[in-house]
Amino acid sequence: MTLATDKTIEPRWRQRTIRSLLKWYKQENRDLPWRKTRDPYAVWLSEIMLQQTQVRSAIPYYERFLRALPTIDELARADLAVVLKLWEGLGYYARARNLHSAARQIVRENRGKFPNDLQTVSDLPGIGPYTAAAILSIAFDQDQAVVDGNVERVLSRLLCIDVPPRSREGRKVFRQLAENLLARGKAGIYNQALMELGALVCRPRNPICSSCPLQSLCRAALAGQQQEYPKKLPRRPRPHRLVAVGVVWQGDRLLIARRPNHAMLGGLWEFPGGKVEPGEEIEQAVVREVREEVGIDCAVEEKIGTIEHGYTHFSITLHAFHCRYLNGEARALGCSEWRWIQLEQLSEFAFPGANKKLFALLSAPPNWTQTAPPGF
Ligand code: SF4
After folding, report:
1. Measuring from each residue's beta carbon to the nearest atom of ligand 1, which residues come in under 6 Å?
2. Whose Cα sits closest to atom 2 in ligand 1?
3. 319 DSSP 8-state letter
4. If we measure between CA atoms, which residue out of 49, 207, 217, 218 comes closest to residue 134?
5. Residue 118: CB partners within 8 Å, gap ≥ 6?
6. Domains of the chain: residue spans and CATH
7. Number of C-alpha atoms within 13 angstroms, CB side, residue 296?
8. What pLDDT, on a 0 to 100 scale, did the predictor assign at position 2?
9. Which of 201, 207, 183 lies closest to 19, judged by CA?
10. Which terminus in the chain has less CB density within 10 A, N or C?
11. Contacts of 1 (CB under 8 A, 6+ apart)
12. What are the helix (H) ranges across the chain?
């Protein structure tokens, strides 16, 4: 097993690697909006968006977000609903909630000035070791090494590291390597160059070694073993869940509920519903979930459709039904708030992806909603 550590990195190889990488980045780096600034707030925002979003998809969100909330103070003052609406469609909404609460913490504890020490930055909600190192190196030029998926892939190939980067041992090995290879004094540019090489050249499936500035220095390329790195942990099957939701109508208005802030997809709106319990009919689950979430009784009338949706750690099949309001007064039992709204108002609220797929199937209220229940 080849295990690269500081002992196996020769100083000359290290120098050539850094020099070649920086020269390549100077010529080849992409013109991206967050590279035009060193404002820590903008760098922070871009790093959070890029955590689980492709560069091309993140650009319009990044620009729109900064136009709407150009400073940490303005982000802190904004209502969470505004922040979530700006984030709508990007997914992983915990990022937006954490961004918002971190901005409030920065205003409270540091008068709105982004902190510049590793411990304080790492203590902010939603900021892990990678993001803290990225912000501090890019915005403040501090000698902090970053380790993300791109960096892991490049390093594992460059040095033929036989340890999976996502294993406990791998995390230590790759951190140590990244620190040993860091171009001190130029960490911001160096980190971006390494990540850019991983994104553009040393790609997961088909690395373009013939265009790589490190080809003559890369052990995997020299051995023709690029595809064997990085080593992977054995895959675990992704669990699947059966979910039932009700679009509950009272006259021509339908009911939406807001997920509690601490829950997954917290702060977003949804049609009430939830997991189908073992042995339970899907329609029974709708009635039970609506009662548990908003405290009203409803009757399932007709199927709207079935949606397949994937999250990072599980996937769902979501069965949606038109339901008729029967009785009870809506209350926030398993949600943080609820509203009766017109169908046309749906776009004013931030919904998660699976619910949004349902919008396409909801072009008009069902015919039977014309007859409003007595007293409504
Ligand atoms: S030579 Fe190929 S495998 Fe090696 S770092 Fe460059 S792109 Fe990756």
Report:
1. 154, 157-158, 201-202, 207, 209, 212, 214-215, 218, 220-221, 226
2. 209
3. E
4. 49
5. 132, 133, 136, 142, 144
6. 6-228 (1.10.340.30), 240-370 (3.90.79.10)
7. 29
8. 46
9. 183
10. N
11. 162
12. 11-28, 40-50, 55-68, 72-77, 80-87, 94-110, 118-122, 129-140, 149-159, 168-181, 187-200, 219-223, 282-294, 353-359
| Cβ atoms 226, 220 nearer than 8 A | yes
Residue nearest to ligand 1 atom 1, measured at CA: 215
Q: Which of 28, 202, 216, 219 to mutate to test the pocket of ligand 1 (most atoms within 8 A of CB)?
A: 202
- Judge whether 366 and 325 are in contact, CB under 8 Å: no
The token pair at 290 is 């609506």
pLDDT tens digit string along 30-83?
999 999 999 999 999 999 999 888 999 999 999 999 999 999 999 999 999 999
Please give the distance, rounded to the nearest whole angstrom, from the Cα atom of residue 134 to the centre of ligand 1: 23
Taking the model in full, what pTM does it have?
0.70
Distance 193 CA to ligand 1 centre (A): 14
